[in-house]
Amino acid sequence: MEDITAKTKISELIKANPKSIDAIASLAKPLEKLKNPILRKIMASRVTIGEAAKMGGTTVEEFKRVLLPLGFTFKQETSTKEETISEPKPTWLQQANKSDIDFYDVRPIIDNGADPLKEILGRFKTTQPGKILCIINNFVPTPLIHLLKQEKAEDTFVETFSDKEFYTYFLKKEKEASQSSETAEEKLQMNDEESFAAICSHFTKDQTKEIDVRELEMPGPMQLILAELEELPVGHALYINHKRVPVYLLEELADKNYQVHINNREEGNVKMLIFKK
Question: Where is each DUF1858 domain found (predicted)?
Answer without folding.
Answer: 4-63
